[in-house]
Specification:
By secondary structure, the chain is α+β, with helices and mostly antiparallel strands. It is built from 20 helices and 22 strands. The strands form four sheets. Strands 13, 14, 15, 16, 17, 18, 19 and 22 form an eight-stranded mixed beta sheet that branches. Strands 3, 4, 5, 6, 7, 8 and 9 form a seven-stranded mixed beta sheet that branches. The two termini are 46 Å apart. It binds adenosine-5'-triphosphate. The site of adenosine-5'-triphosphate has 15 residues, from strand 1 and strand 2. Its EC number is 6.5.1.1.
Amino acid sequence: ALATSDLEPRAATTWSAGTPVPYAFLAAAFERMSNTMSRIELTQQLCDAFRCIMESTPEDLLPAVYLVINRLAPAHEGLEIGVGDALLLQALAAATGRKLALLKEQYRQTGDLGDVAAHSRTTQRTMFSTPPLTVRGVYHEFLCIARASGRAMQEEKKRRIQKLLVSAKELEAKFLARALQGKLRIRLADKTVITALAAAFVWYGDAARGHAPPAAVRIESSTLLLKRVYNECPSWNRIIDTLLQLRDIDERLAEHCRLTPGLPVLPMLAKPCKSVAEVLTRLEGVPFSCEYKYDGERAQIHRVADGRFHIYSRNCEDHTGKYPDLAAQLPRALRAALADAQFILDAEVVAYDRDAKRTLPFQQIQHRARKNVLLDDIKTRVCLFAFDLLYLDGRSLTRCPLAERRRLLRDTFQVVPGEFMFAESSDLIDGEHIQEFMDEAMRHSCEGLMVKALDGAHSTYEPANRTQNWLKLKKDYLSGVGDTLDLVPIGAYYGRGKRVGWFGSYLLACYNADTETFEAVTKVGTGFSEEQLAELYQQHSTHVLEAPRPYYAYSEQTRPDVWLETWQVWEIQCADLSLSPAYLAGMSHVQEGKGISVRFPRLVRIRNDKESEEATTSEQLVEMYVAQFQHATRAEEEEGSE
Ligand code: ATP
C-alpha cells in the first residue's frame, strides 16, 4: 500500500512557469527511474515529474504522459512509434559522424541502442549549439515520424530522427533511441502510470485549495477511479484535458469520460477452468449462465452518431476495412424501432457456411487482409454471434448485470439467420447440464463454453479485466493446464536433418508485465508443417537481431543460434507446466532458483490479433502452475476417497 509520505513531491522545476518543459527534464527522470528497483519509489518519482509539469506548464502534461508510456495516441488510431534498428543506426551515424560499422559493433556488444546513442553524443564535438529539445517538440517529431508515408518515407523518418539526435545531449539521446526502438525500459507498467498520475492530481488539487497533504486512502481511491475511467475511456487526450479542467479527481471525471461509440475499449477476458467441478466451485452461490465459445475472432462493433459502423479487434485495432460484409449485414439485424440506435456490441465473428447452415473453422477467415477488403472479393461469408451489449443510445451498460444487458441486446437486435445470431446460451446450472451443453457446443464446432456470472454485483462488464466472473472451459484442455498459452518467439535454432535450411525450433517467452521483460519459457519444434517451417523461416529471417534485447531474460543453457524481434505471438498447446532452472519465467515465484517451463509444447496457430505485450504473462503462468498442482491434489484425494 502507498503511504502519503511515499508520495510527497520532491522534484523541482528548472524552467520558468508557462515555458515549454525541456526534454532533458524527462530524460533525467527516466534515468533515475531506470536505476530504481522499488515500485513505490518509481511511482513516487513519476508522480513528482507529473506534478512539476502540471504545476508549471499544464499544456505539456499530455505529451509528457504519451512519452512516458511510449505511445502516441489511443490504440485504435494505429500510430506506431517503432522504427527498425537499421534505420536508427543510419540516423545515428549521420547525426554523429561516426562509422556505421562501428556503431553496429557497439550495438552488438552492448545490446542497447540507447547506450550506443548516449556514448556517441559524449564523444562528439558539435560546432554549433542547437536549441534544446522540449517535451512537446519531441512528441510532435515522433508523431511526424509515425505518420510519414509515401515513397520517401524512410528518408523522411531518417531526417527527422537525425535532427532530434543532433540536438540531443547524452541522456536525451539514450531515451530518444530507446523510445524510437519501442522500449524505454524503465519498467513503467500501465498501473504505475495510473497511480502516479492519480497521486499527482490529488496533490495538485489539494495544494490549489490550500489543504493539508492528502491521505493515502484518498490517493488509493482516486487511483481506482482513474483506472476504471481509463478502462472505459482509453484516451489520455480526453482524460487529461478533463482532469486539468477539474483540477481534481472525483466522480465528475467518470461523468465526463464515459464509454463512447467510436472509442474502443479493451474487452473483458476470462479465466481458464479445467473441469465442470471447478466451474461449480468457483461460481458457488453466484447465478451464472453458459454460452457456446465460438471459434472465430472477437469483434467490438460501434455504431456512431453519423450512423456508420466501426469494427474493432481484440486489441482495439480498427478492423472496419476487414469486414465490409459485416457492416452491410448489420442494419438488417437492428429492430425497426431502434434502426438509428447508437450502440457498442461485443461479439465473435465466425466463418459461416450459409448453405449447410453451420460455422466453419477460424482458419477460413484468418488470412483476410486487415483493411481495404472489397465486398466482391469475399469468398468466405461470416456470421456475427453477439453476446454482450455495452452501450445503448447515450447509456453505458457496463454497470448493469449481464441478465439485463442480454435483455437489452435481444430488444435491440433480431436474428438474421447466417448473418447475425445470439450466442447460444443456457442458464441451467447443475454439473450434468453443463456437461451436456458442452457436448452440444462441441457438436457445433465450438471450442468449449464461456461461463458467466449472470446477476448481481459480480456480473457487471469489466473492460480490460480478466476476472473470475467469466470462465472459459475448453474441451481440449480439460486436463493439463486448462488453456493454451500465447507465447512470443525471441530466438531460433537452425534445423538439422530434414530441417536444414530453416529454423528447426524456436525459443519462446512469456511477458512479465511488471518488469517489461520477455522471459524464456520453452523451446518448440513440434506442430509445424513443412510449408509452415519454410514460411516461418522466411518471415523471421527479416526480424533477426544483432544481439538479444536487454529485456530478454534467458539462461545460457537455452541460448539460441539467432535472436528475434518480438513481433509475433504463437498459440501453444502443452501437456503441463513444470519447474526448471533453465527457464526464467516466473523465476523463484514458486520455488527458489526455479522458473516455470512448458512440457511438450506444440504450435496451434499464429495469433495475429495479439501484440507481443499481450502474450501470456509470468503471473498467469504462476497462477496456472499453482492451479495445476491443486487440481492434481484434488484428483488424488477424490481417487483416494473412492
Ligand atoms: P486470452 O487472453 O484469455 O487467452 P484469447 O483471445 O486467447 O484470450 P480465449 O482464451 O480463446 O481468447 O477465450 C476468450 C475468447 O473467446 C474471447 O476473446 C472471444 O473472442 C471468444 N468467444 C467466443 N465465444 C464467446 C462468448 N460466448 N463470450 C465471450 N467470448 C467468446
